[in-house]
């Protein structure tokens, strides 16, 4: 199973602390050695970094760390290939333009027999189930909405498409248009909303500590979404199984959480990933 | 006026020597200080680096140099803003997916009153004339060809669209889909095809020399396209005014060079750029 990382904030924020723990899962503390990718929105623009080297020793990851890019929306992914050969064209996040906005998408999971008809607007360049799912979502939205609909309509449409796609298998994803971030859990997806009063936290994957109070202002609100919690000393929350959440300005603003939510244990989630042949 | 750089080869080639001279025009030997961008095709995938810092002292440019990415098709651009504010969304090269391929586009020039109707397939995200021109080309091609046409038809279609757009002003561009590279000169665009027997060359913008014989094999063929020649000790050729050339496997394979080609002097080309308010 690959690992996902997302960030959604109400002010441009440096993701380096979270990224530092996350990237170490790509080859040091965990085995996701088939490349990584990270996309930062800056205004309407996107700064996108892809690498087919393990994130733990990638010079691109070094740059990302050194550069301290501040962003309101970040989508990142460490890949352990399950479908599709390892190549740059198969490296998440995938990007397309829709309605005059760039959209980024990263997927963790495995879709069985998912070969929807190639749509009119978007075609997969690589050979992953993930890019096919992303193109299917965008083609469906564009066919239905020539112009961008209001948020409630958009959320409902993405939720319906998500339910359709997850009938094909494991479909954890994060997706953003630079304004909001959609996160969906088939199995494991955790998040935390950091806001005042800010405390301290220590990375699970590295002996690095941060005092958020020193690097934030009292109005900052930062949501970090990750496959598995990245820090100790903090209470991470979990998306329910089959929950789609929409983050905006650093917090969840919409969700289709089931009336009787089920939360999957980490052990169970990892076992499911292994059972469908997705390496963990 | 911004500076363009393109490379098209028959084998994955390191562009670092050319890029080293090129990037120094972004703030050291010339004044193109509003950011730069470079996109490398690797197979069907694209590695894209954008920066709004001058290329001469950009850490992203340092990474590009250190990383020694080998690619068969490269599109790069140093920007001096003429239309549209300086922002990441306005930084070339622009990227879109068409027919299941990524396309990269970079423009040097200035289009007057160029506000084509927003097409069905692609919309500009930023506010430049350049991105509008790119979207116009892609929208027109996609509307006419639901599937990718043969090369002759594609070249003729792009040539016709180019002629239409250049009626609005200065339209030097380079564009690639990872297989071939289209280069068009309204005014100044130079190129060189390096092949065996390889010689030595020295950068015009830096005291760096390279012996291509040491870094190539006898079968290599590498075309480098740039606004102005990058080296001494080599004979750069020039695209004629209003010529569209298609490079493939390191050489020009198609061109619509006028029957009586006109070649613009550097002085004249720079004067035209200044006259329409494009900084040089």
Automatic annotation (TrEMBL), chains A, B:
Key words of the record: Glutamine amidotransferase
Domain Glutamine amidotransferase type-2: 2-280
Pfam families assigned to the protein according to its UniProt record, in alphabetical order: GATase_4 (PF13230)
InterPro entries for the chain: EgtC-like (IPR026869), GATase_2_dom (IPR017932), Ntn_hydrolases_N (IPR029055)
TM spans (from-to): none
CDD domains: YafJ
Tree of life domain: Bacteria
Keyword Cell inner membrane: no
Protein name as annotated: Class II glutamine amidotransferase
């Amino acid at each position: 199973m690959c690992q996902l990382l997302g960030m959604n904030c109400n002010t441009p924020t440096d993701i380096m602390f979270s990224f530092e723990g996350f990237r170490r899962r790509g080859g040091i503390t965990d085995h996701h050695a088939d490349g990584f990718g990270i996309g930062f929105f800056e205004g309407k623009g996107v700064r996108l970094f892809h690498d087919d080297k393990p994130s733990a020793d990638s010079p691109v990851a070094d740059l990302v760390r050194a550069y301290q890019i501040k962003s309101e929306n970040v989508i990142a992914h460490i890949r352990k290939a399950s479908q599709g050969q390892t190549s740059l064209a198969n490296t998440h996040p995938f990007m397309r333009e829709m309605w005059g906005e760039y959209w980024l998408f990263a997927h963790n999971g495995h879709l069985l027999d998912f070969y929807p008809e190639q749509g009119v607007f978007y075609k997969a360049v690589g050979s992953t189930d993930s890019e096919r799912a992303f193109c299917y979502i965008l083609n469906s939205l564009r066919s239905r909405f020539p112009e961008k609909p209001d948020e409630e309509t958009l959320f409902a449409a993405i939720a319906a498409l998500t339910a359709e796609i997850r009938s094909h298998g494991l479909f954890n994803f994060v997706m953003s248009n630079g304004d909001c971030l959609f996160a969906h859990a088939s199995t494991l997806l955790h998040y935390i909303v950091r806001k005042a009063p800010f405390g301290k936290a220590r990375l699970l994957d590295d002996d690095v500590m941060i005092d958020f109070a020193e690097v934030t202002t009292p109005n900052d609100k930062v949501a970090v979404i990750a496959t598995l919690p990245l820090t100790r000393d903090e209470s991470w929350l979990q998306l329910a199984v089959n929950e789609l959440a929409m983050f905006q300005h650093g917090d969840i603003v919409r969700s289709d959480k089931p009336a009787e939510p089920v939360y999957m244990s980490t052990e169970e989630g990892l076992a499911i990933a292994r059972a469908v042949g997705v390496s963990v």
